Amino acid sequence: MSFTDKLSAAWQSQTSLLCVGLDPDLSRLPAELQSQPDAILAFCRAIVDATADLACAFKPQIAYFAALRAEDQLEELCKYIRSRYPQVPLVLDAKRGDIGATAEQYAREAFERYGADAVTVNPYMGSDSIAPYLEWKDRGAIVLCRTSNPGGSDLQFLKVDGVPLYQHVARLVAEKWNTNGQCGLVVGATFPEELAQVRAIVADMPLLVPGIGAQGGDIAATVAAGSDSVGAGMMINSSRAILYAQAQAGEDFAAAARRVALETRDAINTHRKP
Ligand SMILES: O=c1ccn([C@@H]2O[C@H](COP(=O)(O)O)[C@@H](O)[C@H]2O)c(=O)[nH]1
């Protein structure tokens, strides 16, 4: 099944636009896990098991694994998600961007090694740097457009022919690069006005929307600005707020993560229009 078909099915079957981000930080893991040899894998698997019925996607961020020399644990985690929860799309957040020959290897890494349904990519190097991902006709390439960080404005807001650069990216992806219908865009929940502008340009293209939770983006404004024509269209990502949720009495870390994921999923759904 293609990335976009799997995502549309997940939006429906899970009744969820919540993407659970997997950004394991060893120093924030529960003490009882920290000394285990495969602590990262054990932690992420527990989070996945606790939230799988609440998520329309899982998004491991590769830097958190690579920094700890834990790519083997990321591989195992991806295998686990694919076999246990095949209905939940797996988005590898890698933000790759390089010349075509190198991009071919990055595409193999994402789609062969990790078996991701989609990968995040950087548009700065242009069409030939994106083409290798599009060779994988059923997989997604999710292109950075209007990122959630404040510094994203340095370049993304520059006017080119009177139009901000991020809008050029949105148009380029929608009109030229989306040859297989498997492209998406990254637009931050911290910029709802720009999210609405992007939605107006790209019709029902899926958007990966990080920035709620730890980055403080407003859920109601995000849903109002970014929903597609059927009240879906987004993977609204939260990572740290779920992963490191404060445990309440009687909860372990996974139960706390589930509680926050449930609250977040429901808060998003409250604002959706049928
Ligand atoms: O514009 C972007 C693109 C990607 N991210 C990634 O999303 C998560 C956000 O984590 P939180 O803990 O929910 O803030 C993280 O993996 C980023 O690398 C982003 O934040 N903004």
From TrEMBL:
Keyword Lyase annotated: yes
Gene3D superfamilies recorded: Aldolase class I
Alphabetical list of InterPro entries matching this protein: Aldolase_TIM, OMPdecase_AS, OMPdecase_type-2, OMPdeCOase_dom, RibuloseP-bd_barrel
Orotidine 5'-phosphate decarboxylase domain ranges (all copies): 17-253
Active site positions: K95 (proton donor)
Keyword Lyase: yes
Catalytic reaction annotation: orotidine 5'-phosphate + H(+) = UMP + CO2
Pathways involved: Pyrimidine metabolism; UMP biosynthesis via de novo pathway; UMP from orotate: step 2/2
Keywords assigned by UniProt, alphabetized: Decarboxylase, Lyase, Pyrimidine biosynthesis
Top-level taxon: Bacteria
EC numbers: 4.1.1.23
Entry-linked SUPFAM superfamilies: Ribulose-phoshate binding barrel
A family per Pfam: OMPdecase
Gene Ontology MF terms in the entry: orotidine-5'-phosphate decarboxylase activity
GO biological process, one term: 'de novo' UMP biosynthetic process
NCBIfam families, alphabetized: pyrF_sub2
Family: Belongs to the OMP decarboxylase family. Type 2 subfamily.
Record-given protein name: Orotidine 5'-phosphate decarboxylase
Species per Swiss-Prot/TrEMBL record: Noviherbaspirillum pedocola
Taxonomic lineage from the root: Bacteria, Pseudomonadati, Pseudomonadota, Betaproteobacteria, Burkholderiales
Primary gene name: pyrF
